Amino acid sequence: MALMEHLREFKNRIIKAAVATVLGAVGGFFLYQPFITAIKAPLDEINAEQGREALLNYSTVQSSFSLMVTVSLYIGLVLAAPVWLYQLWAFITPALYKKEKRYALGFIFSAVPMFLIGLLTAWICLPAAVFALTAFNPDGTSNIISAEIYISFVVKFMVSFALAFVIPVILVGLNFMGILPGRTILKQWRWVVVFVATIAAMTAPGTDIMTMFYLAAPLLFFFFIAIVICLLHDKRVERKRAKLAKGLSETEIDRATSAEELEKLGRIEENSGSVESSRLSS
């Protein structure tokens, strides 16, 4: 395709994604009140059980309306995610080789569940985080929190934790693309432990050490599973290149090799070995 045709296709797919997002935002308008009720539940629990006052505050006249529009757009992006992800995939796919498409599909099918697991974990931990962070109020004081700031905190809290669950998938993707060797990741395992412990401490800042452990354990598990996958993939690539390097050009080594070609190479090696043995015997 010519450059102008690429740009025209990109524009059409952007328009389709935008229309889906707007329609999703309309649906988000009806979900706005249930969403606010759900994220405000930890503050209501503080008021009911702790005897402290924790309230959401709308600081300006138009802030309640602008916040409703913003949250509706956020919800619209989530609801329209299948559409704009498909548009992105359909635009990129023609430029990918078969092997690259396989890697990309594997990345998507792995990253999406991990992202959702991270969101679910963050949602479960949100009440404990809100309780712990508001527990430092002196006696006789209240938490009158700006609604904009509180919603921004909730969104960042959930997205950051969800992205932390996606990082192992990104590491595996970079390894399969030949950018990041597994040994390099393994050498940095101490930093991985520190990183995971920091995230767990920030997400569950309560005094219960077991809460931090429950959050850190699955993250460490996924990180080290990713490292094992990367190391196994590196060994497989090394073995394949060692077999293909005999008598093949660099282009032939880099491209995917079929089972028939590998079998043929094995027969060639056997034949060359038999020829060599006959020469020695003669």
From TrEMBL:
Transmembrane as UniProt keyword: yes
Compartment(s) where it occurs, according to its Swiss-Prot or TrEMBL record: Cell membrane; Membrane
InterPro entries membership: TatC (IPR002033)
GO biological process, one term: intracellular protein transmembrane transport
Highest taxon of the lineage: Bacteria
GO molecular function: proton motive force dependent protein transmembrane transporter activity
Annotated TM spans: 14-32, 65-91, 103-129, 149-177, 189-206, 212-232
Alphabetically ordered keywords of this record: Cell membrane, Membrane, Protein transport, Translocation, Transmembrane, Transmembrane helix, Transport
A single GO cellular-component term on record: TAT protein transport complex
Coiled-coil region: none
Quaternary structure and interacting proteins, as annotated: The Tat system comprises two distinct complexes: a TatABC complex, containing multiple copies of TatA, TatB and TatC subunits, and a separate TatA complex, containing only TatA subunits. Substrates initially bind to the TatABC complex, which probably triggers association of the separate TatA complex to form the active translocon.
Family of the protein in this entry: Belongs to the TatC family.
HAMAP family per the UniProt record, alphabetical: TatC
Function statement: Part of the twin-arginine translocation (Tat) system that transports large folded proteins containing a characteristic twin-arginine motif in their signal peptide across membranes. Together with TatB, TatC is part of a receptor directly interacting with Tat signal peptides.
Protein name: Sec-independent protein translocase protein TatC
